[in-house]
């Protein structure tokens, strides 16, 4: 009230509260949609429309899931990855559930042979000379570094996957090229494929030679116009046919490969090819599609 004004004469002022509730008035319109909620809905609508357009564009640009990827997604079992994607990973559960351990023989190999190989390797010298020393090559062959996954009955070491992984990890700390050189025969090499699917003659011929390093393998999969997707090879084809004179069943192949690790020193190449049988010569004993041929 003003000075000198009678206190009883002061009229209460009218307060207007904006918001919801009885007796309250809404604020004046804001923008073309009339209120703040309308503005928010408008922004969200534009955002959703943009998201849909970007999604449709990306869906048209990205390739579909290939046959190889579908097979890979359907293989294996569910492990710790389930806990991760479920949002509740537990380190203690991982420790309690998965307890990989090396056998006494595998531990001894890691402590003795792998340690000695690391001692005679120099990452600088390998990078400069672009090759290992003769001593290192001979030691890897003599100690069956190239046959760790091949069973003992075929001259290999018969080590577990965990042991091979541990050995490769230690080699990588000293010389990455040694890691790759040992990794390829024990992963991409044809040894495990021969053990599982090879004929008796193929096993008898190839496995001992792969185990002692007489034959160093490489895997010819990647081509100039295709990556490492085994079911999407471009320019690597083979056709089932019969020899015109002997009638022997075989394949005629044409291929171009590149980026093949160990190719300069390999004695046998596993070729990834797209097999076709237009004349039905397989007689139902095989299928068209991806296959591997060994070329010595």
Automatic annotation (TrEMBL):
The keyword Nucleus does not apply. Residues 1-42 are annotated as: Disordered. Keywords: Oxidoreductase. It holds the Pfam family Acyl-CoA_dh_N. Residues 126-213 form the Acyl-CoA dehydrogenase/oxidase N-terminal domain. Signal peptide: none annotated. It comes from the Eukaryota. The keyword Protease does not apply. One of its GO terms (cellular component) is mitochondrion. GO terms for molecular function: flavin adenine dinucleotide binding; medium-chain fatty acyl-CoA dehydrogenase activity. One of its GO terms (biological process) is medium-chain fatty acid catabolic process. PANTHER family: MEDIUM-CHAIN SPECIFIC ACYL-COA DEHYDROGENASE, MITOCHONDRIAL (PTHR48083:SF2), MEDIUM-CHAIN SPECIFIC ACYL-COA DEHYDROGENASE, MITOCHONDRIAL-RELATED (PTHR48083). This is Acyl-CoA dehydrogenase/oxidase N-terminal domain-containing protein. The lineage of its organism: Eukaryota, Sar, Stramenopiles, Ochrophyta, Bacillariophyta.
């Amino acid at each position: 009230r003003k000075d000198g004004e009678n206190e009883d004469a002061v009229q209460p002022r009218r307060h207007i509260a904006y918001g919801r509730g009885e007796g309250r008035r809404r604020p004046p319109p804001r923008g073309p949609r009339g209120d703040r909620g309308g503005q928010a809905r408008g922004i969200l609508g534009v955002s959703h429309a943009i998201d849909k357009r970007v999604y449709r564009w990306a869906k048209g640009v990205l390739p579909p899931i290939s046959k190889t990827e579908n097979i890979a997604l359907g293989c294996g079992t569910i492990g710790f990855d389930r806990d991760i994607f479920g949002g509740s990973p537990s380190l203690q559960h991982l420790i309690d559930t998965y307890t990989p351990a090396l056998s006494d023989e595998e531990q001894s190999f890691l402590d003795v042979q792998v340690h000695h190989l690391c001692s005679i390797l120099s990452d600088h010298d390998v990078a400069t000379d672009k090759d290992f020393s003769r001593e290192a090559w001979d030691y890897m062959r003599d100690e069956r570094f190239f046959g760790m996954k091949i069973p003992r009955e075929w001259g290999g070491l018969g080590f577990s996957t965990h042991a091979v992984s541990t050995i490769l990890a230690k080699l990588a700390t000293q010389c990455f090229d040694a890691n790759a050189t040992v990794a390829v025969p024990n992963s991409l090499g044809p040894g495990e494929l021969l053990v599982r699917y090879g004929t008796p003659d193929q096993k008898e011929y190839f496995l001992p030679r792969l185990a002692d390093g007489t034959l160093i393998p490489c895997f010819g999969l990647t081509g100039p116009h295709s990556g490492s997707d085994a079911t999407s090879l471009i320019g690597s084809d083979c056709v089932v046919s019969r020899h015109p004179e002997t009638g022997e069943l075989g394949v005629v192949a044409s291929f171009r490969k590149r980026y093949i690790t160990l190719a300069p020193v390999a004695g046998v190449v596993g070729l990834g090819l797209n097999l076709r049988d237009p004349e039905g010569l397989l007689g139902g004993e095989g299928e068209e599609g991806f296959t591997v041929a060994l070329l010595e």
